[in-house]
Specification:
With about 60 residues, the protein is an alpha+beta fold. The protein is built from one helix and three strands; from the N terminus they run βαββ. Strands 1-3-2 form a three-stranded antiparallel beta sheet, with helices on one face.
């Protein structure tokens, strides 16, 4: 299984804009790459890590 995870640090007050960009990128990512075979994906926001301004984008799929 492959597991990809992107961690983003977002400036205070910009979380909404960052989520819009991540959602648009996610649509492109899943439409034009092997991520279309993904078995799951999620975006986590809030107090995920040490900082409340962290966004985590995850994707996972089985091997080839």
């Amino acid at each position: 299984m492959y597991f990809c995870q992107w961690h983003l640090k977002v400036p205070f007050g910009k979380q909404g804009q960052a989520l819009e960009v991540i959602r648009a990128w996610g649509r492109d990512k899943f439409a034009a790459s092997e991520f279309r075979r993904a078995k799951g994906a999620r975006v986590m926001v809030g107090h995920v890590c040490v900082s409340a301004s962290t966004i985590v984008d995850e994707g996972r799929r089985r091997g080839p």
